[in-house]
Amino acid sequence: MDPLTSVFTLLVLLVTFVLITVVAQFLRRQRRLRLALRPIAAYRSMPILVSEAVESERPVHISFGGSGLGLESTISALAVADLMYPLVERASVARQTPLITLSDPTALGLAQGTLIRAYRRREALGAYRSPAVRWYPQGPRSLAFAAGVGGALADEDANMSVVGGRFGPEIAFIGEAAYRYDQTFFAQSDDLDGQAIAWVMAGRPLLGEELYVAGAYLPAKPSALHLSQLLAMDGLRLLVVVAILLVAAFTVIREYFVQIAIGLGLLVLLVGVYYGLMFLRARRRG
User: For residue range 78-137, what is the model confidence (pLDDT) as tens digits?
Assistant: First the structure.
């Protein structure tokens, strides 16, 4: 990474940290303030489907894919855990333990810890079962992982399947298994190939950064930290859009400066002639 990119990255991270901290403190003090979040169809449907799974005594399936800790996919692994917690907490009242799948061993502890925390929050730790978290062979575009998950979806008769994180084209096998066994399929990937397939196959796909705001949408009462993360992300997105427009405008002006100057000169001349004629007409009438 060249020095300019490194400095820019650090600057973005610093601005993000400051925004999250400031907004979180503001939201903690403004307890009566309610934010109107933009609707995301997937997050609107997930709690309803979890309730249906509890009533029908069917498990829900959540997958980390190839996301793991200490790697490039660390952020997506933490985001999936953030999405997983409120869903598991809601499903923990059922006899059926949720099915959690992953292919990176470093995510095992994260998944188990999130599962235990959700059950402890509901005071239902006695219903927790460690085999609910399953590891399948890993590797880039691991077809073995996809085949293992597909078999598990058939054996467990899951009500819905939520996959997010590091997925490649193998996500198609998981989506096909979900459709075959009449399971609602939610999908997202931080890989371009996986995201394209997720968009086509998922009934309600999660697009890109939508995975990272689950903590602001799924809990009944989201924390100030999660809401501040959402606002900071939207604020940075707006800054990026404005920066792109400014750069585009500057490039166009620099490239066509002479033409633009001539055009503005002609426009000023025409406006001057028009008002001059209007002035002369007014004097004649007077």
Answer: 889 999 999 998 888 887 889 999 988 888 899 999 999 988 888 888 888 888 898 887
- Per-residue burial over 90-118, b if 16 or more Cβ lie within 10 Å, else e, is bbbebebbbbbbbbbeebbebbeebbeeb
188 and 272 share a domain?
no
What is the pLDDT, as a whole number, of residue 162?
92
Single-letter amino acid, residue 285: R
200 and 256 both lie in a single domain: no
Q: Is residue 286 part of a domain?
A: no
Give, in order, the Cα–Cα distances in Å from 195 to each of 84, 170, 187.
Answer: 19, 11, 8
Query: Which residues, in sequence order, are CB contacts of 116 under 8 Å at separation 6+?
Result: 125, 128
What's the rounded mean pLDDT across residues 279-286? Answer: 72
The answer to whether residues 2 and 41 belong to one domain is no
Residues 63 and 127 grouped into a single domain: yes
Q: Give the residue numbers spanning the domain of 22.
A: 1-34
> How many structural domains does the chain have?
3
Record the tokens describing residue 165, joined without a space: 């994180």
Helix (H, G, I), strand (E, B) or coil at 115: helix
Distance of CA 200 to the CA centre of its chain: 17
Looking at the fold, whether 80 and 201 belong to one and the same domain comes out as: yes
Contacts of 37 (CB under 8 A, 6+ apart): 216, 217, 230
Q: Are 82 and 215 in contact (CB under 8 A)?
A: yes
Same domain as 24, residue 119 = no
